[in-house]
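Quarterly update from the structural biology core.
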Amino acid sequence: MTQPLLEHLPALAARIADAPHVLLGFDFDGTLTPIVSEPSQVKLDVGVRRMLRMAAERPRTSVAVVSGRSLADVKRHVGVPELIYVGNHGLELAGPDFAFVEPTAVRYSIDLVPLLPVLRESLANIGGVLIEDKELTIAIHHRNVAVGEKERVFQLVQGIVSALPGSYKIALGKEVFEIRPRASWHKGTAVAWIARRLATPRVLTIYFGDDQTDEEAFKTLDDAVTVHVGNVATSARFHVAGPADVGYYLRWLIDSTDFKLPPSGCAAL
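Predicted structure, tokenized:
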């Protein structure tokens, strides 16, 4: 059962103090920023941006922003070159000295090209639908669609995707249907890949996320400190209320990664 993160800060501080390196991972929409009705209008708080940069500048801390947005889109909205960025739910990654795209997603992406005009034509008569081409995936946002029309959107998308040669699937997110390749790669495998690439023994991963795709990370990152943002059922070990709390804990994590020893007698986390 998930527990409030606030009640376990001393134990978390102990793990941070004992770790040679800390990898901080954050989802973007709904975690670092509140959800907005129009994805292109999202704004990252300047204070959060400054804290992300401060955390990344620590010699024993790496920071990754792990988003469902395309890599280029999330990099543009965050705007901190020192960070590691993960786009398309883990399918594309880039850091200051590396870049990687999951090969299966690249191979299948040709199937998406003829799909876009079909989706646009089929959904044109439903108000509020937003179709987002992310090159490796397609997102159909239905946050602004009338409640009675949402099922119709799903049925239309499902029918279109079923005509593909089995290379794609529909994944459900917060007010979005994602057309994603059938690749054994997701946010969790991407974050684990980053941790291995750091080539540092005993990397402590701390991961915050709010969406269904973050659940894949919560389940995959066995020894990580996983934190769900929100108040729904989750496989994360801990939870916080919302993005404002994530900013608070980010500030706390910056202070903690000075590797100051916490009070003695803390229980194991």
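Residues 259-269 have pLDDT under 50 and may be disordered.
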